[in-house]
Amino acid sequence: MDGYTAATNEKSIEPHCGGQHPMLSSRPMILVGLTGGVATGKSTVSRMFARCGAVIIDADALAHQVVEPGKPAWRAIVKTFGKTVLNPDRTLNRQALGALVFRQPAQLRRLEQIIHPRVAREQARLTKSAGRKDPKAVVIYDVPLLFEAGIDARVDKVIVVTADRPTQIARLNRRNGFTRAEAIRRIRSQLPLKHKAAAADYLLDGTISRPRLFTAVKQLYRELLALA
Ligand SMILES: CC(C)(COP(=O)(O)OP(=O)(O)OC[C@H]1O[C@@H](n2cnc3c(N)ncnc32)[C@H](O)[C@@H]1O)[C@@H](O)C(=O)NCCC(=O)NCCS
Ligand SMILES: Nc1ncnc2c1ncn2[C@@H]1O[C@H](COP(=O)(O)OP(=O)(O)OP(=O)(O)O)[C@@H](O)[C@H]1O
Fold first, then answer.
1. Distances (CA, A) of 175 to 25, 31, 167, 204, 213
2. Complex ipTM tops 0.95
3. Phi/psi at 62 (nearest 5 deg)?
4. Disulfide: which of 43, 71, 85, 103 matches 97 by Cβ 3.0-4.6 Å?
5. pLDDT of the chain, 228 residues: tens digit per residue
6. Structural domain harbouring 178
7. What's the CATH number where 198 sits?
């Protein structure tokens, strides 16, 4: 199938996105890690999985929430990095903080030490809540640092969304206004994409058109549903 590669064999199952197949009634909740490089298309793919009926737990969104003004992580960031990383309205100046930490790996580690434990707690809470609501949910963890943070060991399957580097750079320029150097710094702050791809159970090509990508996502969702 275009844009979708799997190590496993295709299962024969009714071609619809979402809905519970009668053969799957005993399936427990499945935890799926979704990762990739910067701007390869993880959020785009996770929105498509949401349309199929999956529960999405988005680490970037949680990382944004835990640093809202006045929250403990926000206070720790101000204490560590100073008020120069704040906007006049006291929200985090993400551009300023990003420019600082992606130039200095030691500072990035300090920021991660503040944010990651709080994101992990929220992930655990949301996972429990998804399991209570639907014990057979397909739960997708959208986590850019899935491998770097060792979360791959806690999920049943890993999907990696790939893109070639020129596409990543062009997207970061268009979406974030990053220069080429800024984009490359952000890309290099992660495990190389080829290492992530080599460790994946499923690969999705994030550079194909959205309709083709959605077709690949629907097929993969059916395959995930079929995992007993
Ligand atoms: C430095 C910050 C404020 C810059 O914010 P900005 O709005 O520019 O980026 P945003 O948070 O939306 O992330 C965009 C992408 O950058 C990449 N990225 C973010 N944090 C990291 C990191 N610590 N290491 C490598 N890549 C990262 C991811 O691919 C992510 O999808 C922000 O990235 C941050 O707080 N990072 C530390 C928290 C973290 O590790 N988040 C990742 C998910 S837990
Ligand atoms: N298949 C596609 N075709 C064209 N553009 C796309 C496609 N998928 C994503 N994009 C665009 O590329 C950019 C990055 O996509 P997206 O936000 O989904 O990536 P991401 O991996 O979640 O990014 P980040 O690592 O920054 O969180 C967005 O501007 C999005 O609109």
1. 42, 30, 12, 21, 20
2. yes
3. -65, -40
4. 85
5. 467 776 433 333 333 464 444 444 466 799 999 999 999 999 999 999 999 999 999 999 999 999 999 999 999 999 999 999 999 999 999 999 999 999 999 999 999 999 999 999 999 999 999 999 999 899 999 999 999 999 999 999 999 999 999 999 999 999 999 999 999 999 999 999 999 999 999 999 999 999 999 999 999 999 999 885
6. 4-13+21-67+119-225
7. 3.40.50.300
Question: Which ligand sits nearest to residue 110's alpha carbon?
Answer: 1
Residue 36 in contact with ligand 1 by CB distance below 6 A? no
Whether 34 maps to a domain, the answer reads yes
**pTM given for the model:** 0.91
Type of residue found at 165: R
- 112 neighbors 6 (Cβ within 8 angstroms): no
Q: Is the CB of 163 under 6 A from ligand 1?
A: no
Compute CA 114 distance to the chain's CA centroid, rounded to the nearest angstrom: 19
Q: Is 43 annotated as a binding residue?
A: yes
* 157 labelled binding-site residue: no
Pocket mutation for ligand 1, best pick of 38, 66, 93 (most atoms within 8 Å of C-beta): 38
Give me Rg for the CA atoms of the chain.
Answer: 18
| Ligand 2 centroid, distance to 39 Cα (angstroms) | 5
State the total domains in the chain. Answer: 1
Question: Does a structural domain hold residue 163?
Answer: yes
Q: Is 128 a known ligand-binding residue?
A: no
Which positions ≥6 away from 86 have C-beta within 8 Å?
78, 92, 93
